[in-house]
Amino acid sequence: MLSLIVSFVSCAEDQGPQPLESNSNAPAEVTNVVIENLPGKAKLTYTLPSDEDLLYVVARYTLENGTPMEVKASYYSNSMLLEGFTGQSTNEVKVYAVNRSEAESKPVSVTVAPLKAPIFDIYDSLIAQPDFGGIRITADNPTKEEIGILVMQKNIQGDWVPLRTSIYTSVDEVKQSLRGFEPVEQEFAIVVRDKWLNYTDTLVTNIEPLFEQLMPKSGFVGVKLPNDATTINNAYPISNLWDGQFLEYWGSYFTDRTIDVGNHLVTFD
């Protein structure tokens, strides 16, 4: 009974990880804050206080979509990058110096005015056009932002729903086709989203996919060319590549990866 009581008291007093130091005196504030407004971002450069137990600087702000943000920078650095803005408004940022006891300084309030976020230029470059069995999406993403290009169609309730094959990428030139559609005119809605859940306007367009028919695989024949990759001993036939079997070991086709042939090629007609 005594051991149970001791265990209970011990658990009640456990408050989780605590700072290794105990200094209730708040550090001085950062000074000389300089703002560089960037597309969808803002860079802050500042002078650190001289407190010997300074640990980091933290900035807190709220995005236009209501998301609270917190960015920390080590005391080894005198700058930080604030991200996630749409660039459609000014935003208040509060900057705090924090010591090793997690005591925070008084806030230094600054106002940032980021430039237009990259998703809007990506949206302006967006082109949707017919492709075989679907639609083809192209767009320019020169700064290689992490984006989603959500391609939507209406469900039976009449609500726009993103397709499972929507595009998620960070390449500089988006060139991707969405397949599996009947060759009849259909309505699509397309929107660009960034990883902070900022959205552009929606492009609504009617597109008729081009007719596409699957070639009969029964006529495929393997062809051996001099620059084809070497197969491993007792390799299964190349016809395993198109026989419709995906999950079984004997439905595979193996080439020798130890042979350096440049492009790793196999050929069939």
Brief synopsis:
This protein is mainly β and 269 residues long. It has helices at residues 2-13, 118-124, and strands at 31-38, 41-47, 54-62, 68-74, 79-83, 91-99, 108-112, 127-131, 134-140, 147-154, 160-162, 167-169, 173-179, 186-194, 203-207, 222-223, 267-268.
Q: Nearest-angstrom radius of gyration?
A: 29 Å
Which series of helices and strands comes N to C? HEEEEEEEHEEEEEEEEEE
CATH topology of the largest domain: Immunoglobulin-like
Rounded average pLDDT? 86
Tell me the CATH superfamily of the largest domain: Immunoglobulins
Low-confidence stretches: 1-10
Looking at the overall shape, the CATH architecture of the largest domain is Sandwich
**What share of the residues does DSSP label as strand, in percent?**
35-45%
Broad CATH class of the largest domain: Mainly Beta
- What is the global morphology? elongated
